[in-house]
């Protein structure tokens, strides 16, 4: 049975996969892109994240680094590095490697995927699903899927051609099998805030995960799905490229928000001043 629910707040790498949706391949070849984000649950600062993407020749590399901060770090210590490398052949994106190296309360969580002729092969999964709280994704559900960071470039190419964030994408991240569904929204004005480097007009995009396998059967308080997640996209640089500047959804801890705090591309840099 297919279950449709919204994004999990600790699936941050999947959210961050959208931080580079709106660059063109030519732009990425010209200079690597680096972005930083802070996340809040209600008034509490709970996460920080950094994203980098580079495209050299026919090879691409995407990396995210994220960790809990403040109250969330006291409640549960978590840090994660997610990396994908792949190649572009005849205009087609082919992932080669995808890895996740995380620590949750000092317990290692690792995923290593390799791709043979474009199809995923799971080389390492730590810890393995226990078969009770969480089931493994059966191998027959792996084919024709991509990792969440390669999904970024798939969407990127469509947006560069059609200027739309809509569409559905089949994803296997080593633990979970899901479809990511995007729906274009409206353009609205984001007000100035001390948490973000951006204010002004931004285009919204609704996100939804169609859960197919590998998710926990019973949700804890921190693992309950987010409701009505929305991503806003805008141009932090004048006459520059649009990037996601805000993410917002309702959670068990209140409104969950992610703000852009730093953007760097080539010699251009904007950064939030912090106390």
Report what the structure shows.
The model is unreliable at 1-10 (pLDDT under 50). The longest helix has 15 residues, at 148-162. The protein is built from four helices and 15 strands. It has 275 residues and is mainly beta. β2 (33-41) and β3 form a beta hairpin. It is globular and about 45 Å long. Helix content is 12%, strand content 53%. It has a 15-stranded antiparallel sheet that branches.
Helix amount: 10-25%
Shape: globular
Cα gyration radius (Å): 18 Å
Domains, number = 1
Helix/strand/pairing category: mainly beta
* Mean pLDDT across all amino acids: 82
Total DSSP helices: 4
- Range of strand content: over 45%
Q: Would you identify the regions where 5 or more consecutive residues have pLDDT less than 50?
A: 1-10
Number of strands: 15
Distance between the termini: 50 Å
* Main sheet record: 15 strands, antiparallel
Order of helices and strands: EHHEEEHEEEEHEEEEEEE
